[in-house]
Amino acid sequence: MAIRNTTRRWGAIAQLLHWLIALFIIAQFTLAWLFADLPAGARKLTLLARHKSIGISILMLACLRLGWRWANPTPTLPDTLKPYERSLARFTHALLYVLLFAVPFTGWTMSSARGFPVSWFGLFTLPDLVPKDKSLYNMLVTTHTVLAWILGGVVTLHLGAALKHHFMLKDDVLRRMLPFVSHKPQGSAR
Amino acid sequence: MRIPVPSLAAFLLVSFPSFSADAPAVPHYALDAAKSTLEFSFTQAGAQNKGKFTHYTVNFDFSPDNLAASRLEVTIDMASLATGDQERDDTLRDADLFAVKKFPQARFSATQIVKSASGYEAVGKLTIRDATREARVPFTFRVASEAGTNAGYMAGKTTLKRLDYGVGQGDWKATDQVGNDVSVSFALRLTAAAH
After folding, report:
1. How many domains in chain B?
2. What is the CATH number of the domain that holds B41?
3. Chain A residue with Cα closest to B177
4. CB-based contact B75:B24 (threshold 8 Å)
5. For residue A189, is pLDDT > 90?
């Protein structure tokens, strides 16, 4: 598999970033679900610290990903797509990118507003983005949560679309994001 | 309560054996709480966090010329801790950490003050929760004459291991999220009072 993208297929770096972020998003929802009902305590603190570290990792990976996307060709959408499907796909992907930045960013800001500096796996501490502010913190908790649920919804839509392309439309939209799968020219699976 | 004069005299003689004609008098200093700070800092989830105590008393008998008769006694009202976060403060006051209901006070009692390269060292016993340990607290001290009274400025910093004092039971024994090292720093203004 090529390192760089072609107009037909995602390269190794783009795939790695895509799947790492996917894995991290699953981890984030799992952690959030685990600590949501916990009382304040050591266990909650541990899970929250992981959640923050992984969130910052997603933010860093999202930056790399956007840079790599800009420096590489983007595989083209299948010709079979109708214009509105094309627009919908573009909009969904743009929204995913926005949320990959917005969700971690609101999380980081909310930590700052609470007065808890964010550390990346204990290796370094990130600067506080805003001064301590209780009402801003409360607002950001809601924003972070709502954005996370929107991200969850859009990811589900994204996953559904990928499966539809693979199993119903039988094109290579999913396959070209999968490692270890040989590339078949578009439409040959029909 | 009335104290019989002979026993008071005996008490003074026993308590202050160095109280003789040639030893310089040791001034007594008490805390000027409004102009003093007692802070602690600790790592939480990898980042440095700060807190302070707002209620504590300091009694300091000190003369650089009579260290043998110098003493330091600090009593901290543990419920007065403040880290800037209500939930965290409540957690710190709970049974697994400072357990302030059971152990409302922490105390440092130094009966030995020694000269060090950079100032002095108070050597004594530090009690937090129900654990008492030998502790050496370095400090600097200078006296300034301010509007007719003598003010003493005492400052210093030391690092304690919280688990030495049982601050961290159950899950809090883990040090990966909340570090074992807690640094304590103080900048106190003390006022000289009649002994």
Report:
1. 1
2. 2.40.128.110
3. A46
4. no
5. no
Q: Taking CB atoms and an 8 Å limit, are B45 and A45 in contact across chains? A: yes
B69 part of a folded domain: yes
The domain ranges of chain A are 12-177
Question: pTM of whole model > 0.90?
Answer: no
- How far is A99 from A37, CA to CA, in rounded Å? 25
The predicted pLDDT at position A188 comes to: 44
B42 at the A interface (CB within 8 A)? no
B97 reaches A (C-beta below 8 A): no
pLDDT of residue B77: 98
The vertex-A89 CA angle with A85 and A94, nearest 5°, equals 150
Cβ-based contacts of B41 with chain A (< 8 Å): none
Residue B80: inside a domain: yes
Burial of A171 (0-12, 13-18, 19+ CB in 10 A): buried
**Is B177's CB within 8 Å of A42's CB?**
yes
Write down the ipTM of this complex.
0.74
A&B contacts, CB < 8 Å: 53
Please name the residue that has the structure tokens 């000190």: B62
**A12-177 belongs to which CATH class?**
mainly alpha
Nearest to A125 among B46, B96, B174 (CB): B46
Is B185 a member of any domain?
yes
Q: How far from the centroid of its chain's Cα atoms is residue B149's Cα?
A: 23
B12 domain residue, yes or no: no
Contact assessment for residue A184 and residue A170, using Cβ atoms and an 8 Å cutoff = no
> Which of B177, B178, B180, B181 best probes binding to A when mutated, by most A CB atoms within 10 angstroms?
B177
* Residue A6 DSSP code: -
Residue A163 to residue A170: CA distance in whole angstroms:
9
Distance from CA of B150 to the nearest CA of A (A): 38
Where are any strands of DSSP class E within A36-108? none
- Proportion of chain B above pLDDT 90, given as a percent: 78
Chain B closest-CA separation from residue A115 CA (Å): 8
